[in-house]
Design goal:
The chain is of the alpha+beta class. The chain has a single domain, classed as Nucleoside Triphosphate Pyrophosphohydrolase. It has three helices and ten strands. Strands 1, 2, 5, 6, 7, 8 and 10 form a seven-stranded mixed sheet that branches. The protein has a three-stranded antiparallel sheet with strand order 4-3-9. It is globular.
Amino acid sequence: MTRVLYGDRISKQAKLRLSCSAILFNGDRTKVLLTRRKDNWSWCLPGGMIEAGETVSEGCAREVWEETGLKVRILRLTGIYSDPHQLVEYPDGNQAFIVVLNFEVELLEGEPRLSSETIGVDWFPIGEAVEMDLFHGHAQHIKDSMAGREGAFIR
């Protein structure tokens, strides 16, 4: 099971990884799309690791497609997140210090579906979503996206 460990500068022992998460609102911006991870059953925003050889926009769109079956377009960067006191540990024992780029995206086409990585895909009212115990600080990503700030948050 993927888990997050906490400690003073614990991430110094891990490899740096670049990741993304995507905020997809419904048409009237009252709901947000969340996925439920297969590896730890946590609800979260669609997203994952950016791969070598792709832009961050391509990586984010690919991750949304892989996890939800939706084709999206990147609208804007809403936040950059890094916490040296968090370490992500994967089932295979690998550890990562993850820097997350959060993007607001818009739907181009498709209907939400499950994937090999997800056991749930659903729309949640924003007020409910930000109160959930979402994986890896994703509630803050949603709040930051809703803030209407012109520039990205750096946290």
